[in-house]
Predict the structure.
Amino acid sequence: DAGVTQSPTHLIKTRGQHVTLRCSPISGHKSVSWYQQVLGQGPQFIFQYYEKEERGRGNFPDRFSARQFPNYSSELNVNALLLGDSALYLCASSLGRDSQTGNSPLHFGNGTRLTVT
Amino acid sequence: RKEVEQDPGPFNVPEGATVAFNCTYSNSASQSFFWYRQDCRKEPKLLMSVYSSGNEDGRFTAQLNRASQYISLLIRDSKLSDSATYLCVVCLDYNQGGKLIFGQGTELSVKP
């Protein structure tokens, strides 16, 4: 079975540009979450979507936006890129509404490594 | 104050050693607790859930103290393959978005 897939795996952008990251959840999973992980830190929650609706938002500026499609795949968009946006962007899916339960663990993709120059 | 704080690392231990990781959380609305493992340049993977009664999975034992808002992970008889970063994770209740809050991670290096 395919796990969570993210594309692209690596991306280099310049300041001011925008970027779209894509995520396909595990088949049957309806919840998708996005996390940003900078070097040496744990992942930071950006968004959670369940059944195509935003269910949670972390402390990120409005430059960050996301959406979930009818097939439960998701996109993360970042506008007006800053150097500080350079990070590993992780997508995670789970079966249920809650981000994580004992019976519905979160499964992460391999991430997209974004470098902003 | 960070919402989830872990022991600063790295921990360098010999094979066979017992190592303990500590974690504290600040949000009393936290509902669920987990330890994740992240290998270098890989995605985090769930290691184990943490329950108030404490739980064990082979060489790994996790403890939760809700009154002190404290979580621990004990690894016994450490193996070379245990080398990784261990992330303490707290899940807030659904009214707060059900989001996971990760600690900064504690790096473990097990040496021969």
